[in-house]
Amino acid sequence: MRRILVTGFDPFGGQSINPSWIAVQALDGLELDGHRVVAAELPTQFGHSLRALDELIDAHRPSLVVCTGQAGGRSAISLERVAININDARIPDNLGKQPIDTPVIEGGPVAYFSTLPIKAMLAAMLAEGVRADVSQTAGTFVCNHVFYGLMHRLATDPACEGIRGGLVHVPWLPQQGHPSMTAEQLSLGLEVALRCAIHTHRDVRIQAGALN
Prior knowledge:
The protein is an alpha/beta fold. Helices cover 29% and strands 24% of the residues. Helix 2 crosses helix 4 and helix 3 crosses helix 5 (183-199).
């Protein structure tokens, strides 16, 4: 059975929970159309998070990799379009590191686009009544760090040929603040998105842009 690797992060910034890990943990072991979901928690740490992700990819050889992270203040599940080659941390990570204006990958391209069918995934979630949107920025903290590192590996490692990947941001849980979504809503949205990604190899063309 082929595998889908889905990751979340541990809590950071003084929080006691991280909705990304709670949402993906609920999907661990789920079978979706001939694929088994493998959920894993990444450390909210520059460098260490990428090494952990590399080890997971080597161990599971997934056909899809979907990393998720917390985006407090957002009101919907955000499908990230682009990863940029910059670390610029507004707060320290969980090891106290706070890189400013450093590259994720020295000498790497300026940016990578997600290779997930983000527009089709958006339409699928909306059709199920799950709040979702396409985001044009994954920030410059550890989420973007992992997103860029993932896409760089998928683009440059021959052993990863055919693996598609990207990043999804999720809102707070209700106990963290507002706006928010419940853990059940987050897990449902991710399940719908994963099922869509399995079957969609050419994305649909629908409007999901931003004015600013």
